[in-house]
Design a protein that fits this description.
This protein has helices at 3-18, 29-40, 50-60, 108-115, 122-133, 148-154, 156-166, 172-182, 207-215, 258-272; strands spanning 69-73, 82-86, 89-96, 101-107, 193-197, 202-206, 225-226, 229-233, 250-255. The chain has ten helices and nine strands.
């Protein structure tokens, strides 16, 4: 990416974060999804604002201005938050808003069962478990727990090994598909697009655009990561609090640069048109 493009994206992102009535001002994801559904459902295409006319054309192609739109929420626990239907054609959208976006979580045992289906070495999987528990074991039974920062400081080489394995070209797109689009079960309805924003302003990209972007760019991180997505534990429970102990079993994936990355994808899309 050119320096000028980077500066352009950074300036746009600064304006988004520091503007007035803009996306991210409402950090309640559920409320934002409800607002989007209320706004879209029952409207005709010509009644939409410019932001959503552009998004609808992106996911459906050319649309008759009189076409009526149906919108509803996706099923709980599945990746699509928003289902948009026009002329009996449905599109499935994952909706994000705000900063520090958590895009996926599941129990570590289930995630490891998934990793066992991929061409990843046993050593790297064991090291991932050690990072997850950070108590000197790979099963969470250790008596001394340390913070993520402390563990990363002492085990930088092991984390580099994990990252080499999970970011291989034959592995990374499968992980990205699970954590962003498919979810924990192949029986789930997958998301086809990610929309970041609110009613008035948004960035978006298709599954294919996002996977291509991640595969064709380099991302550095001192923690375990899948492209620009970072692995973490829901709660390390360093104080052994029984009220949060079960959260130790849950891994999370965050995409901290989601908005900025979507802006880059949008910029590249516009250049190719």
């Amino acid at each position: 990416m050119s320096k000028n493009k980077c500066l352009k994206v950074e300036n746009i992102w600064y304006n988004i974060c520091n503007g007035g009535d803009i996306m991210g001002s409402n950090t309640n994801g559920f409320e934002n999804e409800s607002n989007l559904i209320d706004y879209l459902n029952g409207k005709r295409y010509f009644e939409l604002n410019d932001n959503f006319k552009k998004f609808i054309r992106f996911i459906f192609g050319e649309v008759n201005k009189e076409s009526k739109i149906k919108a509803c929420s996706g099923k709980s626990g599945q990746k699509p938050d928003l289902i948009i239907e026009i002329d009996d054609v449905k599109k499935y959208v994952s909706v994000k808003v705000g900063t520090g976006n958590s895009v996926h979580q599941e129990e570590i045992e289930m995630f490891m069962n998934f990793l066992n289906t991929l061409p990843i070495s046993e050593v790297s999987k064991i090291e991932l478990l050690k990072f997850h528990w950070a108590d000197g074991t790979y099963d969470g039974t250790g008596k001394i727990r340390v913070s993520s920062a402390e563990y990363k400081k002492e085990h930088a080489e092991e984390i580099k090994l994990i990252n080499r394995e999970v970011n291989k070209k034959e592995v990374l797109p499968i992980i990205i598909n699970r954590v962003l689009f498919q979810g924990k079960s192949n029986l789930y309805e997958p998301a086809e697009y990610i929309y970041y924003g609110d009613i008035n302003m948004g960035q978006w990209a298709s599954k294919e655009e996002i996977i291509n972007y991640i595969l064709n760019n380099s991302f550095s991180n001192n923690s375990i990561h899948f492209g620009p997505l970072s692995y973490q534990i829901w709660n390390r429970c360093l104080n052994f609090n029984p009220n949060t102990e079960d959260r130790r079993n849950v891994m999370q994936i965050k995409w901290g640069s989601l908005a900025a990355d979507l802006l880059i994808i949008e910029s590249e899309r516009n250049e190719s048109e």
